[in-house]
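Appendix B: complex inputs.
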Amino acid sequence: MHYEEPSLTATLEYTMTPEDFIPKVIEIKNLTKTYMMGQVPVEALCGVSLSVHKGDFIAVLGPSGSGKSTLLNMIGALDRPTSGTVIVNGTDISTLSDNQLADLRQSVGFVYQTFNLISRLDAIGNVELPLSIAGVPKKKRRFTAEVMLKIVGLEDRIHHKPSELSGGERQRVAVARALVNNPSFIIMDEPTGNLDTKTGLEIMEFAKKLNKEQGITLIIVTHDTEIGSQARRTIRLRDGQIESDEVNY
Amino acid sequence: MRSSDVLGYSFSAIRLRKMRAGLTILGVMIGIAAIVALMSFTAGLQVTMTNQFEEGFGSDTLTVSSGGGIFDLLGGGGADSDFSLLLNDTDMINAIDHVESSVAVMTKTVQANFSGNIVPGSLSGINFTAYAAMYNTFVAEYGSIPESPVDTDVILGSAIADPWQNGTIVAEVGDEVSIVWTGRVNGSIVQTNYTGNVVAILEEIGGFGIGPLDIGFYIPIDWAVDFFETEEISSITVKMDTEEQDEVDALIAEIEDMFGGLVSVTQPAALLSMMDDMLGILNIFLAGIAGISLIVAGVGIMNIMIVSLIERTREIGILKGMGMHGRTVMGIFLSEAMMIGLLGGIFGIITGVVLGNLIGGVVGDLGSSGIIPAGGPSSIPDITPIFTLDLLTFAIVFGVGIAAIFGLYPAWRASKLKPVDALRSE
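Resulting structure:
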C-alpha cells in the first residue's frame, strides 16, 4: 500500500495564519453559562468560542442581556463557566480553586463603568491597592503608582480623593489602577458609560494609545457602536451567542 | 497582602466611620472598665479584709461564745440563747490540753461623755495583760497599758478619742470619762454611770475582727463585773499552743462537749478561709456581671460589622476583583473588630483603674470621714484596689477575644462573597 507523505511546506501554507504566531492570552471554547432565576434556568451564554491574542484591541458589542457582562466575568476570572473551557494565560479557569482564581485576577486589569474606586482612599491609595494585594513593599508600590498616575496625567491630583475628582479623572485613576500590575490584558466594561462625550472620547483615545504604543491587550465591552468602531476587532453578541466577529480595517 | 497593609486598610475603615466605631468602642470600654474596677476592688478588699482578720483574731486563737453572735450566721450555730458563759469558765478551759491561756470578755454597748461630747462605743471588760498578750493590736499609742490596773482605768480605741478621724480629739490620756450604760439587771431597766480616767489610747487597728476595736472602751474585768452587776460574759478568747488542724478540731470538740454543745467555738483561720471563699464567689459574680456587659458589647460589634459588610459589599467585590483572597478579606474584617476590642480594652483599663481607685476611695472615705462614725458596726479601712498584670492582660485578651468571636461571623460572610455578585450590589 502506497502512502504519500504531505510536504511540510504545503501543510504550513494550508493551516497557519500570521495570527498563529502571536501568543493567545484568552482562548474560549464552547462556553456556556446558565444562571438560575429562581427555579428557571437562564442561558446567558451558549456555545461561545473565541480567541484573543496578545496586543488585540477588541470591542464586544451587543444589546442589554446579550451576555456581554457574563462573557467579561468569565474572561476576567470573576466567575466559572457552566460548561466549556476558558483558558486565560494558558490556564483553564474551571479547574482553579477560589484562591487560584484570585491569583489569576491579579494579572487582569479591570476598568468599570462606575469607576469602582475606594472612596476613602486617595488617588494614589487606589492605584496602589492592586500592588498592595499582590504583596509589593510600600516604597516600591508608591513609586510605581506615582508613575502610573503620571502616565494618565494626574500627577498633580495624587492625594485627591475620588469625591474631589471629575468623572474623567476618576476613570483615569481607574485606568492607572488597571495598568499598575502590568496585566496581561485589560477589560473595560462600558468605560465611557458614565462620562460626557468629550471625556469619553479622551478615555478612548488614551486606550487606543495604550494599545498602540504599549501593546496592551484591550477588551472593551460597550453597547455604543461608535466606541466599538474604534477597536480593531468587533465581536457582536446576541442572545448569548456570537453574531459576528469582524476585523475593522 | 502583608499583615501591616491589612491592619492599615482596616484602620482606615474604622477612621471613616468614627462615630459608629467610637460608640462600639465605648460599649467594649464600659465592659472592660467594669471588669477591671470590680475585680481590682474585690482583690483589694480581699487583701484588706484578710489582713484585718489576721490582725484582729490571731491565727492561734479560738473564740468561745454563748449566743453565737455573728458566728451563728458564719457557721457556729446551735447555741442556746438562755445559756451564758460565766467569768470563771476560763478556769475550766485553761485546764484543757493545748490551751495556753484564755481571756473572758464582757461586752456592752455604752455611751461615753467626755466633757459634753457624747460618743457611743462598745465597752469590754477584760484582763488587760492577758488581752495584750493575745492580740498584738492591743497596743497603746498614747499613755500605757497598766500591768496592775486600778478600777477606774479606761483604755480607749483610737476612734473613740478621735471619732471623726479629722483631728477633733474628744479625749486624751488623763481625761476623766463618764460612761453610761442602760440595760436590764435582774429584770429591771437600770442606768449606771461609771467614771474613770483615760490611761491609754490604742493605735489605730482598722476594721474587722472580734479582738480589739477602734470603737472600743476597755475596763478591767473585775470592775465590769461590779458595773454590770453580773458574772455573765460575752465570750472567751482562747490562745492555743498548736496550729495543727487535727488538734485544733479536737480542742474545739472538747470545749463544745464541756458546755454540752451550748457554746459556739469559732476558729478565726476557718472563718478567714470561709471569708476568702465568699469573696472569691463575690469576685466571680461581679466579674460575671461585668462579663455580660462585655458580651452585650460583643453583640454590638457583630451588629456594626454586619452593617459594615452590607454597606461594603461592592468594595469587597472590587478588592476580590483585583485578586484579594477570601482569607485576606476575612483578615480585614476580623482585624477591624479586634481593633475595636483592643481600643475598647485600652480605654476600658484606663477607666477601670480610675474607677477602681474611686470606689476604693469612696469606701475608705465612708470610714474615715465620719459618714460612718465611731460607734457604728465597725470602722472601714482604706481599700486599695489591686491591679495585677494578670488582671490587665486578662481584660485586654477578653476584650479582643470577645470582639474576635463576635466579628468572626461577619468576617466569614465577607470572605465567602462571590466577587461577581458583590460587584453587582448597589
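Residues 84-258 of chain B form one domain.
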